[in-house]
Known about the structure:
- The chain contains seven helices and five strands.
- The strands form two sheets. The chain has a three-stranded antiparallel β-sheet, with no helix packed on it. A two-stranded parallel sheet has the order 1-2.
- Strand 4 (about 140-145) and strand 5 (about 145) form a beta hairpin.
- By secondary structure, it is mainly α.
- The mean pLDDT is about 85.
- About 50% of the residues lie in helices and about 5% in strands.
- It starts with a helix and ends in a 5-residue tail after the last helix.
- It has a domain at about 55-170.
Amino acid sequence: MRKEKLPTIRRIGFSxxxxxAGYMLGSNGTFQLATxxxxxxxxxxxxxxxxxxxxxxxTVQQIQGANATMGQAMESLRIEGKYNPATTGMxxxxxxxxxxxxxxDLEAGIGVDxxxxxxxxAGMALREVGDEITRDEQNRLLYKNKLIRMYSVDRMKKRYxxxxxxxxxxxxx
Length: 173
Protein backbone atom coordinates (compact mmCIF):
# COMPACT_ATOMS: atom_id res chain seq x y z
CA MET A 1 0.00 0.00 0.00
CA ARG A 2 2.87 2.32 0.74
CA LYS A 3 4.28 1.80 -2.76
CA GLU A 4 0.98 2.91 -4.28
CA LYS A 5 0.94 6.23 -2.33
CA LEU A 6 4.53 7.14 -3.21
CA PRO A 7 3.86 8.02 -6.90
CA THR A 8 0.81 10.07 -5.86
CA ILE A 9 2.84 12.00 -3.30
CA ARG A 10 5.57 12.60 -5.90
CA ARG A 11 3.01 13.92 -8.38
CA ILE A 12 1.49 16.24 -5.81
CA GLY A 13 4.95 17.43 -4.74
CA PHE A 14 6.01 18.00 -8.34
CA SER A 15 2.75 19.87 -9.02
CA UNK A 16 3.32 22.11 -6.00
CA UNK A 17 6.91 22.71 -7.12
CA UNK A 18 5.72 23.72 -10.60
CA UNK A 19 3.02 25.92 -9.11
CA UNK A 20 5.54 27.64 -6.82
CA ALA A 21 8.04 28.14 -9.66
CA GLY A 22 5.30 29.60 -11.87
CA TYR A 23 4.23 31.92 -9.08
CA MET A 24 7.80 33.12 -8.53
CA LEU A 25 8.44 33.71 -12.24
CA GLY A 26 5.11 35.49 -12.65
CA SER A 27 5.51 37.71 -9.61
CA ASN A 28 8.97 39.01 -10.54
CA GLY A 29 7.88 39.86 -14.12
CA THR A 30 10.23 37.48 -15.93
CA PHE A 31 7.82 36.78 -18.76
CA GLN A 32 5.94 40.08 -18.92
CA LEU A 33 5.62 41.67 -22.34
CA ALA A 34 7.71 44.77 -22.87
CA THR A 35 5.77 47.95 -23.53
CA UNK A 36 6.29 49.37 -26.97
CA UNK A 37 7.53 52.89 -27.45
CA UNK A 38 7.04 55.12 -30.47
CA UNK A 39 10.04 55.08 -32.71
CA UNK A 40 11.97 58.27 -33.42
CA UNK A 41 11.87 59.59 -36.98
CA UNK A 42 14.25 57.91 -39.40
CA UNK A 43 15.89 61.24 -40.11
CA UNK A 44 16.89 62.78 -36.79
CA UNK A 45 17.06 66.24 -38.42
CA UNK A 46 13.29 66.22 -39.05
CA UNK A 47 10.88 66.65 -36.17
CA UNK A 48 7.17 67.41 -35.93
CA UNK A 49 7.79 71.16 -36.05
CA UNK A 50 9.93 71.01 -39.16
CA UNK A 51 8.49 68.24 -41.31
CA UNK A 52 9.82 67.64 -44.77
CA UNK A 53 7.26 68.52 -47.43
CA UNK A 54 7.18 65.92 -50.17
CA UNK A 55 5.27 68.00 -52.71
CA UNK A 56 6.16 69.50 -56.04
CA UNK A 57 6.99 73.21 -55.96
CA UNK A 58 3.96 73.99 -58.13
CA THR A 59 1.68 72.20 -55.67
CA VAL A 60 3.22 74.07 -52.72
CA GLN A 61 2.70 77.39 -54.53
CA GLN A 62 -0.95 76.51 -55.23
CA ILE A 63 -1.54 75.62 -51.57
CA GLN A 64 0.16 78.82 -50.43
CA GLY A 65 -1.95 80.84 -52.88
CA ALA A 66 -5.15 79.14 -51.72
CA ASN A 67 -4.19 79.87 -48.11
CA ALA A 68 -3.63 83.56 -48.89
CA THR A 69 -6.94 83.79 -50.75
CA MET A 70 -8.76 82.03 -47.93
CA GLY A 71 -7.21 84.47 -45.46
CA GLN A 72 -8.62 87.35 -47.48
CA ALA A 73 -12.06 85.70 -47.57
CA MET A 74 -11.85 85.18 -43.80
CA GLU A 75 -11.15 88.87 -43.23
CA SER A 76 -14.05 89.86 -45.53
CA LEU A 77 -16.40 87.58 -43.59
CA ARG A 78 -15.10 88.98 -40.30
CA ILE A 79 -15.71 92.57 -41.49
CA GLU A 80 -19.26 91.56 -42.50
CA GLY A 81 -19.74 90.08 -39.01
CA LYS A 82 -20.14 86.55 -40.41
CA TYR A 83 -17.00 84.89 -39.05
CA ASN A 84 -16.48 84.34 -35.32
CA PRO A 85 -14.17 81.37 -34.65
CA ALA A 86 -13.65 79.62 -31.32
CA THR A 87 -10.14 78.47 -32.18
CA THR A 88 -6.84 80.06 -33.14
CA GLY A 89 -6.44 78.47 -36.58
CA MET A 90 -8.07 79.59 -39.79
CA UNK A 91 -11.28 77.60 -40.28
CA UNK A 92 -11.68 76.64 -43.96
CA UNK A 93 -15.04 74.99 -43.29
CA UNK A 94 -16.62 78.17 -41.93
CA UNK A 95 -14.98 80.30 -44.64
CA UNK A 96 -16.06 78.11 -47.56
CA UNK A 97 -19.60 77.78 -46.26
CA UNK A 98 -20.18 81.51 -45.89
CA UNK A 99 -19.08 82.06 -42.30
CA UNK A 100 -20.39 81.07 -38.92
CA UNK A 101 -20.27 81.84 -35.24
CA UNK A 102 -18.55 78.94 -33.49
CA UNK A 103 -18.69 80.67 -30.10
CA UNK A 104 -22.47 81.14 -30.36
CA ASP A 105 -22.76 77.46 -31.37
CA LEU A 106 -20.81 76.48 -28.24
CA GLU A 107 -22.96 78.74 -26.05
CA ALA A 108 -26.16 77.26 -27.48
CA GLY A 109 -24.84 73.69 -27.22
CA ILE A 110 -26.07 72.85 -30.73
CA GLY A 111 -22.81 71.46 -32.06
CA VAL A 112 -19.84 72.96 -33.85
CA ASP A 113 -18.38 72.49 -37.31
CA UNK A 114 -15.88 69.63 -37.82
CA UNK A 115 -12.79 71.88 -37.95
CA UNK A 116 -13.70 73.67 -34.72
CA UNK A 117 -14.45 70.29 -33.11
CA UNK A 118 -11.04 68.91 -34.09
CA UNK A 119 -9.16 72.06 -33.12
CA UNK A 120 -10.84 72.17 -29.70
CA UNK A 121 -9.70 68.60 -29.05
CA ALA A 122 -6.22 69.55 -30.30
CA GLY A 123 -6.06 72.29 -27.65
CA MET A 124 -6.28 75.20 -30.09
CA ALA A 125 -9.17 77.04 -28.42
CA LEU A 126 -9.07 80.80 -28.06
CA ARG A 127 -8.07 81.71 -24.50
CA GLU A 128 -11.53 82.93 -23.50
CA VAL A 129 -13.09 79.74 -24.88
CA GLY A 130 -10.40 77.47 -23.42
CA ASP A 131 -11.01 78.92 -19.96
CA GLU A 132 -14.55 77.49 -20.08
CA ILE A 133 -13.59 74.01 -21.38
CA THR A 134 -13.42 71.01 -19.06
CA ARG A 135 -13.60 67.25 -19.52
CA ASP A 136 -16.14 64.74 -18.24
CA GLU A 137 -15.46 61.28 -16.78
CA GLN A 138 -15.27 59.84 -20.33
CA ASN A 139 -12.67 62.47 -21.29
CA ARG A 140 -15.10 64.29 -23.61
CA LEU A 141 -14.91 68.06 -23.87
CA LEU A 142 -17.48 70.24 -22.12
CA TYR A 143 -18.05 73.94 -22.68
CA LYS A 144 -19.66 75.52 -19.62
CA ASN A 145 -20.67 71.98 -18.56
CA LYS A 146 -22.37 71.26 -21.90
CA LEU A 147 -21.02 68.43 -24.04
CA ILE A 148 -19.30 69.72 -27.19
CA ARG A 149 -20.74 67.92 -30.19
CA MET A 150 -20.21 68.17 -33.92
CA TYR A 151 -22.91 69.49 -36.25
CA SER A 152 -25.80 67.13 -36.93
CA VAL A 153 -25.87 65.40 -40.31
CA ASP A 154 -28.75 67.64 -41.42
CA ARG A 155 -26.86 70.79 -40.50
CA MET A 156 -23.75 69.53 -42.34
CA LYS A 157 -25.88 68.90 -45.44
CA LYS A 158 -27.36 72.41 -45.25
CA ARG A 159 -23.88 73.92 -44.91
CA TYR A 160 -22.78 71.93 -47.97
CA UNK A 161 -25.77 73.26 -49.90
CA UNK A 162 -24.73 76.79 -48.91
CA UNK A 163 -21.20 76.03 -50.14
CA UNK A 164 -22.58 74.82 -53.49
CA UNK A 165 -24.78 77.92 -53.76
CA UNK A 166 -21.77 80.17 -53.14
CA UNK A 167 -19.79 78.37 -55.85
CA UNK A 168 -22.61 78.66 -58.37
CA UNK A 169 -23.51 82.31 -57.60
CA UNK A 170 -22.90 84.64 -60.51
CA UNK A 171 -20.86 87.64 -59.57
CA UNK A 172 -20.82 90.75 -61.72
CA UNK A 173 -17.38 92.14 -62.46
